[in-house]
């Protein structure tokens, strides 16, 4: 009896070590989310900052590192941060969406802890609740290669993160009220670069006194630009005057390296470009992000590329935008983005051992959206006629505590011939199944869709209605694995996903207005052999809410931030684990 419990203890802690420690380093962040006043478009407004900065700090780690982020909520409403593109392997508890986590109440803090297992690349984080992304709160994530895996290009001379996105003068609270009441977002008031408004490239369009982003560079050098569309609903065309964009990576896939003069970046997408400062002129150059596929006014975001030997401002008009009326340009550009199948990433040569085009599909889901419509008198958006209702008890907690009636595992695998409903219906995924999801966009605007917990292969996209025959145009060889894909209006995009990551995962429209009105679903992936090897246990610091609120202990309203020294914290943890594992059993 005694020796058995000893073994259980020992195995438990060996398990813990395998999971969290295993020699993989930790990186710690202490973040306070609060409002600050800023004037991105020249007029003061309230924005969401992290540690007083808008955008927030860059979270940087290396493949397999453990990331600990203690988030203090100094807003006046609940918040969750989500980590767009981070897969949280075996650990949807850290995903930071309302289906997996209770929101962090105003005045409270909560510590995320996750491992960036088997990932490299460029991602970003943002607040996932209450339309807050419209007020900021976002920042870049960089996951570096381990030293043992070569990067398929020379080390750049610098690394530059650009968070680009549409921006509104209205507060996120007013915007969400508008969206609920059926008032369209309308065209944005501006496009920001890293929280800053446009350079005054045209005095009739841009008002005076706006602070803009300047990127300082040295002639002849090559920089990696990580560009994220952090906006709420606008696709952006990104370009740098007189400079090629050598595409090298997108959301964790190294791509076939190709030069582009411009790139359409849809809401929630991330790209890395190498840009060589090969111009011999004596001026600065424009860096531009212009709304795509909107009929109304096109206020571009404009930053400045400043060579150290530059003598003056950029000259000439902004570089040309592709023709908006040509629907094939953007789709062909998207199809041209392919994976470099010989490059290593988180592991050596990932594609060599994973030929997605040869795997038998086990489940097919055709998910069709529709333009917003009234359901029970409320404006809602749907997938397959279901508008997601977010219960006050996170689905993941309900699953953990076997509380029935919070959600149903009955999401239909094709559009239903019935009136739309508001419901909490979840896709029942098969653990280690290989699933094909076709996203059919029946709305009139570009939508992008994001899946948490995974990278999916973008197999194909085309205009028209998807049919079985559409599979004949799939790219079964070198489609990129990413986590956000665009779906053009009146078109479809097909993705393939290997469901090897147990957990409950959010599939959502990245366009915040569509998402807010219900265009999301969760994918439940359960290993029938329950084991901590495939899914981590409920974290000890889990917040309880909804029907489980009574389990929640009060948190002192004003938590003092000690800025605990990370190393001593780690040593303490290891020490306690040691005592419990070895000394505890001896004493009983
Ligand atoms: C809140 O922050 C304190 C101080 O840094 C920390 O000790 C505590 O674990 C945090 N609480 C949660 C729930 O993460
Ligand atoms: C693909 O990656 C390999 C291995 O790192 C590299 O040698 C090659 O140049 C890359 N090819 C392209 C087209 O990017
Ligand atoms: C991309 O363009 C740069 C010039 O800006 C050039 O030096 C490089 O060879 C081009 N690369 C490819 C793969 O076309
Ligand atoms: C979900 O799928 C699993 C197989 O992966 C099956 O055993 C289970 O019965 C399904 N649950 C429901 C509620 O349909
Ligand atoms: C949406 O679906 C309707 C009915 O099937 C069809 O007539 C219409 O063309 C579709 N619109 C788009 C943008 O796909």
UniProtKB/TrEMBL annotation:
Membrane topology qualifier: Lipid-anchor; GPI-anchor
**Keyword annotations:** Cell membrane, Copper, Glycoprotein, GPI-anchor, Lipoprotein, Membrane, Metal-binding, Signal, Transmembrane, Transmembrane helix
Q: Which cofactor does it need?
A: Cu cation
Query: Is the Transmembrane helix keyword given for this protein?
Result: yes
Q: Where are the transmembrane segments?
A: 567-587
Q: Which InterPro entries match?
A: Cu-oxidase-like_N, Cu-oxidase_2nd, Cu-oxidase_C, Cu-oxidase_fam, Cupredoxin, CuRO_1_AAO-like
Coiled-coil regions in this chain? none
Does the keyword section mention Transmembrane helix?
Answer: yes
Q: Where does the protein end up?
A: Cell membrane
Q: Supply the CDD domains for this chain.
A: CuRO_1_AAO_like_1
Every copy of the Plastocyanin-like domain together lies at 33-146, 159-310, 393-528
Give GO MF terms, alphabetically: copper ion binding; oxidoreductase activity
Question: Which interval of the chain is the signal sequence?
Answer: 1-22
Question: Cellular component terms, GO, for this chain's entry?
Answer: plasma membrane; side of membrane
According to the record, the residues making up region (Disordered) are 308-328
Family membership: Belongs to the multicopper oxidase family.
The protein's name: Monocopper oxidase-like protein SKU5
Give the lineage: Eukaryota, Viridiplantae, Streptophyta, Embryophyta, Tracheophyta
């Amino acid at each position: 009896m005694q020796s058995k419990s000893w073994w259980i203890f020992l195995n438990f802690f060996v398990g813990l070590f395998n999971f969290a420690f295993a020699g993989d380093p930790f990186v710690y962040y202490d973040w306070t989310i609060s409002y600050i006043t800023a004037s991105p478009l020249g007029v003061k407004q309230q924005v969401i900052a992290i540690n007083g900065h808008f955008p927030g700090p860059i979270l940087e780690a290396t493949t397999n590192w453990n990331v600990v982020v203690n988030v203090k909520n100094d807003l006046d409403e609940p918040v969750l941060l989500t980590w767009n593109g981070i897969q949280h392997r075996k650990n949807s508890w850290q995903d930071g969406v309302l289906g997996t986590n209770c929101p962090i109440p105003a005045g409270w803090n909560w510590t995320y802890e996750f491992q960036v297992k088997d990932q490299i690349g460029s991602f970003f984080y943002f607040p996932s609740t209450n339309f807050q992304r419209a007020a900021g709160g976002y920042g870049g994530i960089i996951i570096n290669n381990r030293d043992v895996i070569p990067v398929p290009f020379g080390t750049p001379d610098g690394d530059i993160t650009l968070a680009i996105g549409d921006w509104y003068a209205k507060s996120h609270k007013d915007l969400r009220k508008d969206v609920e009441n059926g008032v369209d977002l309308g065209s944005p008031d501006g496009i920001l670069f890293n929280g800053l408004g446009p350079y005054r490239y045209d005095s009739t369009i841009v008002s005076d006194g706006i602070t803009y982003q300047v990127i300082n560079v040295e002639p002849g050098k090559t920089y990696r630009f990580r560009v994220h569309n952090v906006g709420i609903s606008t696709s952006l065309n990104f370009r740098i005057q007189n400079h090629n964009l050598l595409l090298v990576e997108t959301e964790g896939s190294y791509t076939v390296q190709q030069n582009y003069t411009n790139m359409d970046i849809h809401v929630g997408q991330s790209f890395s470009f190498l840009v060589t400062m090969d111009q011999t002129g004596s001026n600065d150059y424009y860096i531009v992000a212009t709304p795509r596929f909107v009929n109304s006014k096109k206020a571009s975001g404009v930053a400045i590329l400043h060579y150290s030997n530059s003598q003056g401002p950029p000259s000439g008009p902004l570089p040309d935008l592709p023709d908006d009326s040509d629907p094939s340009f953007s789709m062909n550009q998207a199809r041209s983005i392919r994976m470099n199948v010989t490059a290593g990433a988180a592991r050596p040569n990932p594609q060599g051992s994973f030929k997605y085009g040869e795997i038998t599909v086990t489940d097919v889901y055709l998910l069709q959206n529709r333009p917003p419509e009234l359901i029970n008198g409320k404006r809602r958006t749907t997938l397959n006629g279901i508008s997601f209702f977010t219960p006050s008890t996170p689905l993941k907690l309900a699953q953990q505590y076997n509380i029935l009636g919070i959600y149903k595992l009955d999401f239909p695998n094709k559009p239903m011939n019935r009136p739309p409903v508001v419901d909490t219906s979840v896709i029942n995924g098969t653990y280690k199944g290989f699933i094909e999801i076709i996203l059919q966009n029946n709305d009139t605007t570009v939508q992008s869709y994001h899946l948490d917990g995974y990278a999916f292969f973008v197999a194909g996209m085309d205009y028209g209605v998807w049919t079985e025959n559409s599979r004949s145009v799939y790219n079964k060889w070198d489609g990129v694995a990413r986590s956000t894909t665009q779906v053009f209006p009146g078109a479809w995009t097909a993705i393939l996903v290997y469901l090897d990551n147990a957990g409950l995962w959010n599939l959502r429209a990245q366009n915040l207005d569509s998402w807010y009105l219900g265009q999301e679903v969760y994918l439940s992936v359960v290993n029938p052999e329950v084991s901590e090897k495939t899914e981590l246990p409920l974290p000890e610091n889990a917040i309880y809410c909804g029907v489980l609120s009574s389990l929640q202990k009060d948190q002192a309203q004003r938590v003092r931030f000690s800025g605990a020294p990370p190393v001593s914290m780690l040593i303490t943890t290891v020490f306690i684990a040691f005592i419990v594992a070895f000394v505890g059993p001896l004493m009983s």
